[in-house]
Specification:
Elements lengths: L10 E4 L7 H4 L5 E4 L2 H5 L4 H9 L4 E4 L8 H14 L3 E6 L1 H16 L8 E2 L9 E5 L11 E6 L3 E6 L7 E4 L9 H19 L7 H23 L4 H20 L4 H13 L3 H31 L8 H18 L16 H8 L3 H4 L8 H11 L1
Helix pairs in contact: 4-5, 6-7, 6-8, 6-10, 7-8, 9-10, 9-12, 10-11, 10-14, 12-14
Bound molecules: nicotinamide-adenine-dinucleotide (NAD) and fe (ii) ion.
Nicotinamide-adenine-dinucleotide binds next to helix 2, helix 5, strand 7, helix 6 and helix 10.
Length: 381
């Protein structure tokens, strides 16, 4: 076996009412609570706010996080924390608020500037104590050393650094019971893509990331339809949240690749939600990857449809792609770029933008050139 490093991520508290534990998990002193207006309005922050009040801890709420947060939003959250003299940060929401919380905790603790830390392991300072509470079952951001920022209005840039791992993740499926079907579907497919891309990651895949990815894909593919169509099902919501978390641990160690690289320009230029962008490109990038990843796809196929065991390796690998197409359709997600406003004239721009995602493309099991990217966008149109 080749040698490898593995990071299991933050400590985990999993259970209903977990936000009540936050005062003991999130450092000391005043707290910056980063969320978004929708999550706050739904009352999902209430238990955390009550728990901090009962513990006598002041809370500064920053709820101005938009989907695909901008650098300005990260800087505004950081400023709010600085003004409040906070000693700890909590991120409560989907990937967008959690990513902003991670960066604010780092910028507040280290004194670094955001512009200086894009890329891999550029953030070398210390962050403030940090706890993360997901309210979508998708990004796995509560388990990863990654934060994604939209820069200059269209380009998605990543900060990847050990310093961005939280101290604690709190998983409470109750917080996800009201997630609307289309958000459940898109975020759930995002998590499935994390598991698939971690399993085929070209450089850093290892036996532990494989184990996490397999289990994640089994949980997510078994429960996503129920979570979408019967959102009140606690069993399905718990399985989705756990699956997304496991997929997060997997890709924190074995990074995502071509699907994400081609998805990001759709988010940046057309404001397509992150999970939906991934769903739109998923079958096409997997088709392209068959030449190098057939064996791994054949293994993964059994996580999503055990009946494929009756087929040969090629049939299983093809069956994986077909099963994924079926999940996307059953969950009511569109399967064509034209459905989200993309037209033929935009494809050259998208292909050249995708080439900026070298951080991700180097992990793809088969090379993707700009010509390949254009062909894949054409296939998805
Ligand atoms: N850090 C990472 O490792 C990582 C990985 C993948 C994606 N991302 C980033 O995460 C962001 C996407 O995060 P996301 O997909 O979780 O979406 P999101 O955080 O942008 O939230 C999407 C919408 O869902 C709503 N919402 C959230 N929880 C809800 C709930 N329980 N009930 C009802 N509505 C709810 C929000 O108010 C928002 O309107 C993107 O910026 C993406 O680039 C980060
Ligand atoms: Fe993702």
């Amino acid at each position: 076996m080749a040698s490898f490093d593995f990071n299991y991520g933050p400590r985990l508290h999993c259970g209903a009412g977990g936000c009540g534990r936050l005062p003991t998990l999130a450092g000391e002193g005043a707290v910056l609570l980063v969320t978004d207006a929708g999550v706050r309005k739904l009352g999902l922050c209430d238990m955390a706010l009550q728990a901090f009040a009962a513990a006598g801890r002041e809370v500064i709420v920053f709820d101005a996080v938009e989907a695909d947060p901008s650098a300005d939003t990260v800087n505004a959250a950081t400023e709010a924390g600085r003004e409040g003299g906070v000693g700890a940060v909590v991120g409560l929401g989907g990937g967008s608020p959690m990513d902003v919380a991670k960066l604010a905790a780092y910028l507040l603790g280290s004194g670094d500037q955001l512009d200086a830390i894009y890329g891999v392991e550029m953030a070398k300072g210390r962050r403030l104590p940090l706890a993360l509470v997901p309210t979508t079952a998708g990004t796995g951001s509560e388990a990863t050393p990654v934060a994604i920022v939209t820069v200059g209005g269209a380009e998605k840039k990543g900060v990847v650094a050990q310093a961005l791992y939280g101290d604690w993740a709190v998983l409470d499926a109750e917080l996800t019971l009201g997630l609307p079907p289309h958000v459940t579907a898109a975020t759930g497919v995002d998590a499935m893509v994390h598991a698939i891309e971690a399993y085929t990651s070209a450089r850093l895949k290892n036996p532990l990331s494989d184990a996490m990815a397999e289990r994640a894909l089994r949980l997510l593919s078994t429960h996503i339809r129920t979570a979408v169509h019967d959102g009140g099902s606690r069993d399905a919501r718990e399985a989705m949240l756990l699956g997304a978390h496991l997929a997060g641990i997997a890709f924190a160690n074995a990074p995502v690749a071509g699907v994400h690289a081609l998805a990001y320009p759709l988010g940046g230029h057309f404001h397509v939600p992150h999970g939906l962008s991934n769903a739109l490109m998923l079958p096409h990038v997997l088709d392209h990857n068959m030449a190098g990843a057939l064996e791994l796809y054949a293994d993964l196929a059994l996580m999503i449809d055990p009946s494929l065991a009756a087929q040969g390796r090629q049939g299983r690998a093809r069956g994986l792609i077909e099963s994924l197409r079926q999940v996307i359709a059953d969950c009511g997600l569109p399967d064509r770029l034209s459905a989200v406003g993309v037209e033929a004239e935009h494809l050259n721009l998208l292909a050249s933008e995708a080439m900026k995602q070298q951080r991700l493309l180097i992990n793809n099991p088969v090379a993707i050139t700009q010509d390949d990217a254009l062909r894949l966008y054409q296939a998805a149109l």
